[in-house]
Each structure stands twice: as C-alpha cells, then as structure tokens.
Request: fold
Amino acid sequence: MKAAFKRGTAVTLKDIPLRDLAPDEIRVKVQACGICGTDLHVNPTEGEQESPFGHEAAGVVMEKGCGVTCLEVGQPVVIESATPCGFCSYCKNTQQELCTDIKSFWYSGYFGLAEEMITPAITAIPCDDLPPHVACLSEPLGVAIDLVRLADIRPESNVLLLGPGPIGLMALSIVRRMGARRVFVSGHRVSTVRVALAERLGVDGFFDPDETPLAEVDFDCNIDRILVTAPPPTLADACEVACKGGIISFIGIGWGDAAFTRFDANAFHFKKLQLRASFASPALYTPLALQYLREGVVEGEALISHRFPLDRVAEAMDMARDSSRAVKVIVEP
Amino acid sequence: MKAAFKRGTAVTLKDIPLRDLAPDEIRVKVQACGICGTDLHVNPTEGEQESPFGHEAAGVVMEKGCGVTCLEVGQPVVIESATPCGFCSYCKNTQQELCTDIKSFWYSGYFGLAEEMITPAITAIPCDDLPPHVACLSEPLGVAIDLVRLADIRPESNVLLLGPGPIGLMALSIVRRMGARRVFVSGHRVSTVRVALAERLGVDGFFDPDETPLAEVDFDCNIDRILVTAPPPTLADACEVACKGGIISFIGIGWGDAAFTRFDANAFHFKKLQLRASFASPALYTPLALQYLREGVVEGEALISHRFPLDRVAEAMDMARDSSRAVKVIVEP
Amino acid sequence: MKAAFKRGTAVTLKDIPLRDLAPDEIRVKVQACGICGTDLHVNPTEGEQESPFGHEAAGVVMEKGCGVTCLEVGQPVVIESATPCGFCSYCKNTQQELCTDIKSFWYSGYFGLAEEMITPAITAIPCDDLPPHVACLSEPLGVAIDLVRLADIRPESNVLLLGPGPIGLMALSIVRRMGARRVFVSGHRVSTVRVALAERLGVDGFFDPDETPLAEVDFDCNIDRILVTAPPPTLADACEVACKGGIISFIGIGWGDAAFTRFDANAFHFKKLQLRASFASPALYTPLALQYLREGVVEGEALISHRFPLDRVAEAMDMARDSSRAVKVIVEP
Amino acid sequence: MKAAFKRGTAVTLKDIPLRDLAPDEIRVKVQACGICGTDLHVNPTEGEQESPFGHEAAGVVMEKGCGVTCLEVGQPVVIESATPCGFCSYCKNTQQELCTDIKSFWYSGYFGLAEEMITPAITAIPCDDLPPHVACLSEPLGVAIDLVRLADIRPESNVLLLGPGPIGLMALSIVRRMGARRVFVSGHRVSTVRVALAERLGVDGFFDPDETPLAEVDFDCNIDRILVTAPPPTLADACEVACKGGIISFIGIGWGDAAFTRFDANAFHFKKLQLRASFASPALYTPLALQYLREGVVEGEALISHRFPLDRVAEAMDMARDSSRAVKVIVEP
Reply:
C-alpha cells in the first residue's frame, strides 16, 4: 500500500507491505489525515533517513487482532496519536497524563499519511456521525482543549492568544464559548485567512508583533490569561504582558536556540505568575473533541482551508507551510 | 476447584468447574482474600439462590488469554474488584470514575473466596514485594483513599471519623499521615480491638454514640471534616456536628429504612456544608494503596486480626461479623 | 426619616430618628432597594414585634464617621447585606466566607426599605456608572454567582435549574454565558413572566413539576449539574434526576417541615453525588456582580418587572408575592 | 525614639520623632523583630539615602486612632508587613492576593527595627500566648505557607527544597507534617547550623550543588515537587531535575543578571511542568502561621539562632549575613 515518506523538504509516496497484526492491534483504511505543524519539521535535513509521518487520522477498521473485543470490522474510527495504557501505576492512580507505557501507531512504523495504518486498538475511537475530514480534527482539538483547561478560563478572564494557527483558532473558539470577557490575538497579519477566521470567531483586538511590540500594546484591560502556541521565545513577551495573578499556558517546541526561554524572574515573582506546560501526549479528551465538532463548539469545516488526495501529499505539505493561505490542510487517501 | 457460596447466613464450599478463558482474561490461583462488611450481606435471606463471593483477592497468574500482553504466567498480582475500561468516553475524557463499561470478575461468576478465579487481565496489578495477605488489603485501602481524598484534609483540619471498621481505621492512618490537627473517632466501645487499634494509631478522643449523643460531645474545636463509614442515618449527626464550611465524605449503604437519610437543610445551608459520596467502583488508586502498604503509611499486619484457611471460611465469616473481636479477617486458600 | 416596617403581612411606613454615626459607619440616602423572597417571610405572624427590612440597597453617601477613609460624601454606592470583617482569623487565612465577625447594617436597625440607612463603611462599594435600580441587583446577583461557582459548570455540562425566580434567572444567564451544553428549567408554568424570561435567556426545555414529576421527564441527556433555588424538599428530586458524578448546589431555606430534606443515601452513594450548600453571607462577589450588570452578562433591566416609590411599598410587597406577574420588584425611595 | 537605619552595609540607630496617628492607625511598642534576607539588601550602595527597615515585628499596642475599633491599648500583637485592604474589587471578589490597595507600615516610614512603629490597625493581629521573639516569626512563616500551598504537596510527593534558609526550613517542617514521602534538601554544606537543623527536621538526603551538580544527583525516586527559595538562576536546575508532571513553586528575587532565568522550554513542555511564583504580599495566612508556631508544627525556638538587643542591631545584621553560623536572628528592642 502507498505511504508518504519525508526527508528534508522532499515528500514521496512509496509502496510498502503490511505486516500481520499483534493480538491488540487493528488495521485501518485511512480516509482523512490532517497535516500538523510538527509534520513540517520531520527529518528536516537531507542527510537523515526518510520516515513515514502523519498523526491526525480517521478511517475505517479493516481487520483486528485476536484480542480485540471493543471494535468491529467496518467501524468508522478516529485514531489517537498516543493513548494511555490504562494499566501502568500512573493510569491506575488517575494520572493517565503521566502514563509510562503510552500506546501508539508511532512505534508500529505505520502512520496516517498512507492508504492504511496499523495501530493498537485502544487508540481507536468509534465515530460514525462526522465525515472523516472533520473527525480527524479531533486530534489537534484535543491539544487545544488541554491548553485551554490548563489556563482556568472564567467569564471575567481577559485572554490573549499568541499564535492563531489551527490549534490557536480552536482554542479561540473554546474560550469564546466559555464566555471569556475579552479575547485578543497576536499573530502575523500576512496570514490573512487566519486573521479573517479569528475575526469571524470574535476577537477584541488583533495585533501583529512585527508592527507593535506586544509589551507596547494598550489592551485597555488586565490580561490575566495567556495561551501560547508560538515558539518558546515568545514566553518572555507573555510574562511581560501578563497582569498580577496571570496564568500562561503553552504548547509548542523550538529548534536550536528557539528551544530556550529567558525571562525576568523578579517580575514573574512579583506578579505571582504561573507558567503551565500543555503537552497532550497521551491524548486525553478525544470524545469531548468529537462532541465539540459534532455540536459546533468548534466549526471543523471552517478551519479546513484545503483538501488534497494522497497522491498530491507533497503539494499539501507546501500549502500547509504557507500560513498566508492555509489554515488546516487535510489529505484524503 | 473449590469455591465458597453463600445463602442466608450459611456458607459452604462447592466444587465447580473452570471454563475457558476469553482473549482478555486471566486465571489466577488465589492466595489470600479479605472479608468485607458487604460480604456479610450477600444473599441475606434463605430463599435466594446461593452465590459465590469475595472481592479482595491476591494471587498468582496461572494462565492468560491470547490477547493478554501485559502480564506473565507466574506473576504475583492483586485483583481490583472493578476496573475502568480505558476505552469508553468517560475514561478517554479523564473521568474514569464514571466509566460506563467497568471490567470485573463480578460478571465472570468466579470470585475471590475460592481456589482460583477468572478475571479480565486489566483488573490485575503486579505486586511481588508484599505477602498476599497484606497485598489483598489494597482493595479496601483504595476505598479509604478515595474517601479521604474527597474530604480535602489539611494540616489544620479537625477530623471526625464515624465508624472505626477496617476502612475507617485505614482512613485514620492516612489522615494522621497527612498531619491533620485533631482526629476524633466515634464508634462502639464494645469493639475493643478496634478501639485499641484506633488509639494506637492516634486519636484525640473516642466517643461512643450509645453513651453520649454525638451532638452533645464537647470536641473543644470546630469539626470541619467528617469521614463517614457508618450507615446513612448517621449523616444527620454528621451534619449537626460539622462546623461552618465543613465537608462530609461518606461511603456505605443501608438496607431498608436505613437507606434513607434525613437532615435539617436549613442548617446545612447556613453552615455551607458539603456532602460528598465516595464509591470506589471502579477502583482508582490500587498502585498507591500498594505503596502505602509497602511503606507503612497503613500498617497492613496491624489491621489483620485473623487468618483462616479456605475450608474454615464459614468460621471466618462468623468472626468477621463479631466486631468486638475482629478487625480484618483474611482467608488463605 | 421614613422607613418600612413589617408584621405579619402588614407593611407600614414610620417616621424614625437617625442616630449619630460610629467611627466606621456611613449614612446613605437610599435610591433603590430590591425586594427579596426572604423579605416576604419577615415576621410572618401578627404576634411579633414589627421590624424594619430590605437588604438590596443602592444610594448615595450622605455622611461618614471619623474613621472612614475609603469613601467620600456624595459618592454613589451599593450596600452589601453582609461583609467579611477582613480582620478575624478566617478572613486573614483567605477564608472570608467563614468570617466570624460579619459587618452589616443588619445590626444597626436601619434597613434598605427606607429613606436613609446607617451601615458600616466596609459594606459600601462605589458604583457611579449604573442607575441605582440596576445597581441594587448586585446583592442577589452575588448570591447567584456563588450558587453557580459551587456547581463547577463546564461547556459540556447539562444543567437543570430548579426555581426560575430572580436569583434562578440570574444563574441561568451566567450558566448560558459559560457555554453550558444544555440548560433545563423546572418551575411553575403559572409564573408566566418568569417562564417567558427564561425562554428569552435560552432554555432547552421547561418543565412544570405539577404537570410531570421531574423524575419522569426525558431530558435526552445526562443531567450532571443541578442548581436549586427551590425549597429543601425538592433536593430529593434533584438527587433522583442527577446522573453519576453529578453536583447539586443549592440555596434557600424552608419553614417548618419544609426545612428538612430526605433522600435515598444509597442512590446518592452509588451515583457519587455531591450536595453543596451556597449561602452568600457574607457577600463575596459584589464587584464582579456589578461588572456582570455593566457588561450585560446579566441584563438587569430585563429582570425588573416593577418599580414603586417608597410610599407604595406595601403594594410592592404584594406584587413581589405574585409570581405569576412579578420577577424583580424594586422600591425607589 | 530610636530606630535603625541602613545605607550600604552601615547600620546605625537614630532618634526620630513620632507623628500623630491617622484615624485607622495604631502605635506599637516593638518587642521583637526578625531580620530577613531582604533586609541585607536594603540600600546596598553607599550613595543612597539611609532608610529605616525591619518588617517582622511583634509588640504591644500603645495608642490607637479614633477609628480603630478592633484593637485595645495594651494588647500584644504581631504586625503583618502587608495586608489586603478588604475593600478593593479584588479583595471583595475573594482575590485578596491581588489586592490593589495594600495596607502597610511600609508607607508610614516607621519600621520594625525600632523602639516603636506606626502602622494601619488592620495589619495587627492579636497574639497573647506566644513570646514576642517567637510570634514575630509568623511573618516569614506566612511566606513559607504560601510557598508550600502552591506546590500541592501530597503524601506520595517526593519533594526537593532548594535553599535551607529560615523560610526553607519552615517549609521543610510543614512538608514533613503533611506526610510527604521523601524530602531532599540542596544547600551549601558550609551552612553547618542550617544543615544540622534540616537533618533534625528530617531529610532523606542533603546535597551541596558545589560538590555535585543537582542534575547528576541520584535521588532514587521521581522528584515531582520542588520548592525554591534560592536565586532565580537555580530555576534551570529545578526544571532539569523535575520529573514529568512536576510542580515548581518559588520565591525570591535576584539582583542584576541573577534576576533572569533561562531554561529549556522544550523539556519544560515535554515534562508538562508548572512554574508557580509565590509572593506573600499581601500576607495571607498569619493566624495559621501563629497556630503552627503555637502547636509546634513549626518549632520557632529551634529556628532562632541568635537574639540581640536593639543597640546591637549592627552586630545582629552581620550575624544574619553569616549563613555558616546563623539561622534566624531576632532583635529585641
């Protein structure tokens, strides 16, 4: 079957064989797979070995291992990119977020940008009432849900979102739904479709840090909640803008020097700030994410800017890289 | 293999066959099984069909279904009486306590007071560093942990425990470990071994409600946390004794009229009380319970008053019923 | 100056003298005072001494004691009916809700249904940007905020409100703002203006318990949050309707037998319910309540069905008693 | 009256006049005042104007303003260094920790290292059952309580304390009381009295970062809670040592470059860490701190290494600077 592989910026389709299933695995025919920002960074240099990728998949169960009792062949499912094992000490102590034996297709070598994939049954969640290209958004939406939960949003919160990419826009939708008092967005104005979408979802102000340093913006209120989906160095800005008692939740990683953050710990101390890292691996809220998509809390169709068949996956990747035109790009094998 | 069955107060051993394992099941040789207060109420009337029972088991894995990858034959384990499935919407949304597809031997017909039992693999937790008669205490200890967690104990809390049975005494140990300021116990003085054990664990006062109504006791401090392991009608006492802002957590059920509680809602309102029900099904903290036993936070050996072989299970049940002499009674097949 | 007094159902205006201020007191010219359900129950029998009443007041500072530094003569204010002292051990330990030395006009003998009142300065909160008849709603709104906070509402919550009186309707507004998934209301259909207002605020279903017992209603979803502003006996219904893991927050008191609640503690236990009493004395969220009124989270004008001058206070009381016609009734001295 | 003033490292006593009291103020005869680490940094350079200092005071009320009703002349009190006003929007919304109108002697110009001080009455807390030199420890102990609360310590927590100064040792006492599983301390071995005291309070390991970099220490368990009372640059170590899901709470400020912290945000992200700043201004737990001292949760006498009369305040300051010999130094005017 055909699967996408990446090395440097080159993306190619290769024919690869499928192996037999382990007792707890299933084989899934992929119907849709989203492209995530981290996909663009897989194997960044030419020198490395090429790898399969894609981790936001929805499809149909084609076959199951002998030990799988919770799923049927023919069932439409979404696939979590990482799932708590349910068995380790953390899972059994109600701390699945710290699971030490995460289950994922990641270790199987079969990823989502392919005709088929092999994955542990526990990573699959039945979903027969959303089209696959929308259902597969549950993966990044789970990330957004975790980011928002960490920030403890209330109706009186004045929220600033740094980074209106797909996950940021999903977080914006949720924060609006939760009745936050004000929601501001900081991003690059060149990303016109994202700016337009943010404005449609409802923002009280959009700021481009290239036009005005964030610390000089007059928000006309205290910013007490900040959601960061931008690279780590922006955390210094977040610390500067946050008011006393502020909470900053963040996702996202940086490469090289951008992996480090440096900020004024005195100000952090005197303002009683909190910095909380969100990392939604294992996935924690997939059924809730599906419910949000089903009920329009997050409008899946509105977030999808482009859809490509699998044989145009290279083109899909180029589009996903172009933040002036793309929001969410979906590949449909 | 031999298994205990109960009807009315009669307990007998019967030889029963073992069936084949489903893919996700294991067969366990039982080495120890505690007797719980609810066991005494199984099939209370003579007219009913006799039933197997016993749900606090530890033993060794003898055989496993084809889909079981997380356990090995020969491994010592404790068995949870109910385990979150890890797959339903509640489990996947981090609310396993509301699991809608609980896994348990309960549905297999093979219980813990027997030579062997069949149970879903996910209910078994490896434990090779505690003797089985101590390890099996993890089941009621998980109940005690949940009861205590709900009550939000702090170093400045003045705690009252209603019901110094095995679970109450475990809760007492934990509350002491958490540094609670005062811990009082209300129970029947006739339960001499339980009173003695409570005093050894450290109590600031022991009261017998048959000597002095709880509402007339002078605690010389505000009681702001109450743990109830006594029948529901005692909740009215708890509401009366609790100070403003108090939290009452409770477990336990009543039969007939004792299933109902009635209290002064005005007082409840003006005192801003909270009543929180603990029901540790599914089990949530088994690895933590094992850690508490291992490290002496709860002294397992001290709680065990009697140990019987399986063929004296009827005698064990009689002893468990005699709260003047017994604390925890263990059966060792 | 003129002040309203009540005995039985008789309400009269009397001329009473004002005394000198203590150092920490202020004298306030009352501009608006809401009528609360509890006002209708003041001195219910003819035999008692007549009393002044009214505790939802807004007005203007006329005079201040020598020790008052935080307010100026001429300043428009709202008056909290009870205020944490800021000095007792509870207040200084961040538990003002348990304040043991609450400050209030209640002890001064001068209440809100009067031309003027005397009250501790700490009970007054400056508010110059809302008309007094709206500003005085901050008192009951603080009650509604506390009720809602206790219930831990989330976007996925299915909420049931028992009792669409003024506080219930305020709670409904907040819960809608917080994005609750479903909100149902149980009340009497004869209260037509309240039903109409609830429907305007947005309800997913209105049920009259006189038509269909609550336990027989098909909500088509799990009710996991219940807000009760109805008399205590309705708590049994709430316990019956609540799904596993449900939280019931309640305010309100009953007279005579209606002070008691009785429910099935077994079901409460197996469903892991929580019952949490809200009693907003001392007041805790007055500035937030004013903000909600200012920004339309709660629409003050929409909740006010009638306004009367002080010399028609008896008529105002009769109207407030008629739940088929009145929502919130305001008296403007 | 005599008061201590500081410029550079020079500390001198000067005779200064007392002014009249404002209506909400009291005059206190100081009986004991602790020296805090930040006192050593007041006016660090010779060029600045000399300033009064000392903010950990206990004494007796000598006189009160006309508006003071909550205190009597002759009453022994401790003085909070900063107190929530009880009147601003944050205070009235239950967020006193964000009070925007903090009350303190700080603005009066009269500090604790003096024969007398003038302070707002609301900053004084009656305390007649502890000797003044112990009672004045309530100020730093309130800091320690806030630091520990932020860290959410549980019986299963493995805690690392960075900085066994007086506040760190107080935190250690509390954490032990709360039953933490393991408590490790990182400090300088040259501070022999502090090391000895830490060991007496109970540590599972003491490490000197000058001997072994913290990141190379084998703790033989996951460090999931870190309390930092050391300068901000140590936060990078804390982030490196913390296990997945770890919480780092910190106090303390740095001068110059030491005000900045830089750490690997990728690791912070992947480990889902939380960094929470504690800054106990305003003071929040003074009555609880007094209770802890009264009941021996924190042993005040054991923490006090030296006591000096006021005319030897310069000597007291030198001693406080010598961490090899001093823990807490108290001056008794």
About this structure: Chain B has ten helices and 17 strands. Chain B has a mean pLDDT of 95. The longest helix of chain B spans residues 138-151.
